[in-house]
Amino acid sequence: MNFVGAIDQGTTSTRFVVVDRTGRIVAIDQREHTQIYPRPGWVEHDPLEIWGATEAVIAGGLSAAGIIPADLAAVGVTNQRETTVLWDRTTGAPLAPAIVWQDTRTDALVSELGGEAGPDRFRGRCGLPLATYFSGPKVRWLLDHEPRVAAAAASGEAAFGTIDSWLLWNLTGRHLTDVTNASRTMLMGLDTLEWDPVLLDAIGVPAALLPEIAPSVAVYGEGRGILAGVPIAGDLGDQQAALFGQTGFEAGRAKNTYGTGCFLLLNTGTTAVPSAHGMLTTVAYQFAGQAAVYALEGSVAIAGAAVQWLRDNLGLIDTTSEIEALAGSVTDNGGVYFVPAFSGLFAPYWRSDARGLITGLTRFAEAAHVARAALEATAYQTVDVIRAMEADSGVPMSTLLVDGGMVRNELLMQFQADVLGVPVVRPVVTETTALGAAFAAGLAVGFFEGLDEVRSLWAEDCRWEPRMDTAEREGLLAGWRRAVERAL
């Protein structure tokens, strides 16, 4: 068995990768799934469509690699976090559509839960502010508004999970999640790594719904169906998996993933560092039998999704890959700023009532300026997160490690280096989310000997040095801050 596999179930698509002993991705298959928008602010997925896509990409990835399941030492799982699924324990059928992490329908509930204490009511227990982002309030909303969910919960037949739980249930028949995904629900105690009875009672989620919490690097069971007989081992939320794939195993290592959203994680070691500047305190990973490793995280809701919006809603481009050429056809943003607060603004603002806007429009502005402003918004939001994270950690960032689909956009990467004022570094393997899940699976079964071997597999591909002078940088950032104030 010379390969490990990884299921990477993301917000807009599902992928399966096959990785060899050198850490090289030898095959990949990918399939998009439907984005469902039943009302303004609501975002849903079909859990059965996601599971069908998962089976399809596993078959496609194995075929592309020219191997069979028996050639895999193990398969790991990584997933879009916070997206909430409830299903029937007997039939395995979903009880309602999955509520996606971007969904804002729990806005009123979140305000109610905060009460006089406000959004930081539970931060000391779970490391998270009250926000529509997280899973716990989504479960409560489903219990309150979906009769099928309430009836199944009352009879003991309902099971809740984030997407990793849904996949592990279908892969192994076990009801599990790992500590990284559990840490995003607002229901797990950061110190205990167990479901917290105080949080469950306050948010209104019955303990009987919840999966067993397991370490991130462990063997969960033997696969069935398309992966019959293959060990299913290694489970990480997608951003923690990207940190793992970037070999961010030491305190102080950080990475930023540019995908549907944008997510920066800083390893803080075995200490859970509280944030005073809008960051999240979360679990980075845990090896079976070892202490958990924690991280500070800055989460941006809309990054690549803004490019998809230009494609699907405005028709400015036919494919997302066209954005770089269109944006590069003008030398600057023409005074146009785009604040993509489609789901409110996440870190460091945490304002679910913020709404998106494009400002600075004149008769001079054209489609290319809007396209450039959409890309620049991702870089500006990253600067906001990094400055807040530096304030929490007390350590200035000297280099930014980057990964995710958008890092192929060299215009964006150069602009990121320019407005941040530090080098931006892209690794040879940019699919670090899937790679992290493959590393975790391989480590769990001994396919990789240890962290030193995994570290040796990381290699730098490209580096962007800042070229913008300080005055221009500060002028652009001031314009961004004015635009954000209007969005708030």
CA radius of gyration is 21 Å
Distance between the termini: 54 Å
Beta-strand portion reads 15-25%
SS summary, helix count: 16
Helix content: 25-40%
Largest sheet, order of strands side by side?
15-16-14-13-19-20-21
- What structural class results from the helix and strand content? alpha/beta
- What do the pLDDT scores average to? 93
The general outline is globular
Q: Mind summarizing the main beta sheet?
A: 7 strands, mixed
Low-pLDDT segments: none
Q: What's the β-strand tally?
A: 21
Topology diagram in text:
Elements: E1 3-9, E2 13-20, E3 25-32, E4 44-45, H1 47-65, E5 72-79, E6 84-88, E7 98-99, H2 107-114, H3 123-126, H4 135-145, H5 147-155, E8 158-162, H6 163-172, E9 176-178, H7 179-182, H8 197-203, E10 212-214, E11 219-222, E12 231-237, H9 238-245, E13 254-258, E14 262-269, E15 280-285, E16 293-300, H10 304-312, H11 323-328, E17 337-339, E18 357-359, H12 367-393, E19 400-403, H13 410-420, E20 424-427, H14 432-445, H15 451-455, E21 460-464, H16 470-487
Parallel strand pairs: 1-5, 5-12, 9-10, 13-19, 19-20
Antiparallel strand pairs: 1-2, 2-3, 4-7, 6-8, 11-12, 13-14, 14-16, 15-16, 17-18, 20-21
Helix pairs in contact: 4-5, 9-14, 10-12, 12-13
